[in-house]
């Protein structure tokens, strides 16, 4: 503190938002913010076509289609060949699987370039799937942190601008355990910081499954506890919050009680849980569909956006199945 001219003046500390992110350069933070701004264009959401080959194999087997790399390529190419004007009206960006990133279309165009030609921002799923979490009752964590930085650097060079990582939680009287929530929060935070260091915006997906007999109040309690732990951990890892996208579940009752929950109740529970846990610095929340039908996800997302409350984030969607049902049925007929 210095005294000048009879007045007490304090040395001003910088209020620059970048000060606390000593692991990130200001230019990098600005780049992350610009990517998020482009992804959260008004009225648009994110299309997730990042299913693993094994997941698509199961879908195709149900339709008596032999799954091959070229068949998976053709399906995703068809999905993204929607009329450009209509596609751009609703979709800002696309999450791809590693396989798709390095494929070419039937016209010999690199898939990343094909996505860019549609005026869409390409991204990639970087986690390597769920594994059992020892010390818990069949709870899971997600693998893939080994060599993640090297992979992210390469994805950025190859044209991707964001990444996605998913952890899951089940609800019961005793789950999710504190160990599962804390472990997965640290995994998500490590992933996010690594992704940002490679100039890629991390989509953080802590999916709370709606399988079970729990009511919506129990679901909201779990969402609030899990998100509180997650954001405390993200701050401890110095993750730049203005440069992330949160991809949570809507607050839903278990499947046995879902029919009793109207969209307005889901909206109130979801928004209140977010208000209590998600900082206003987070620019965008893109909900996953979480096993709901395309109609249910549309009605519930609309109710969330119509719900009158303070909502400092852009609220939109990051759907996979809810946007693909009609397309996969059409693909079966072709």
Report on this structure.
Pathway: Carbohydrate degradation; glycolysis; D-glyceraldehyde 3-phosphate and glycerone phosphate from D-glucose: step 4/4. The protein is an alpha/beta fold and 334 residues long. The chain has two domains: 80 residues, no CATH class; 193 residues, Aldolase class I (TIM Barrel, Alpha-Beta Barrel), CATH 3.20.20. Helix content is 43%, strand content 17%. It is built from twelve helices and twelve strands. The strands form three sheets. It has an eight-stranded parallel β-sheet. Strand 6 and strand 7 form a beta hairpin. The protein is globular, with a radius of gyration of 21 Å. The N terminus is likely disordered.
Q: Which architecture of the largest domain per CATH?
A: Alpha-Beta Barrel
- Detail the poorly predicted runs: 1-16
- Write the element-wise H/E pattern from the N-terminal end onward: EEHEHHHEHHEEEHEHEHEHEHEH
Strand order of the largest sheet: 10-9-8-5-4-3-12-11
Helix content: 40-55%
CATH C-level of the largest domain: Alpha Beta
The backbone outline, from C-alpha atoms, is globular
Stated plainly, the CATH topology of the largest domain is called TIM Barrel
The number of helices is 12
GO biological process, one term: glycolytic process
Pathway: Carbohydrate degradation; glycolysis; D-glyceraldehyde 3-phosphate and glycerone phosphate from D-glucose: step 4/4
Catalytic activity: beta-D-fructose 1,6-bisphosphate = D-glyceraldehyde 3-phosphate + dihydroxyacetone phosphate
GO molecular function: fructose-bisphosphate aldolase activity
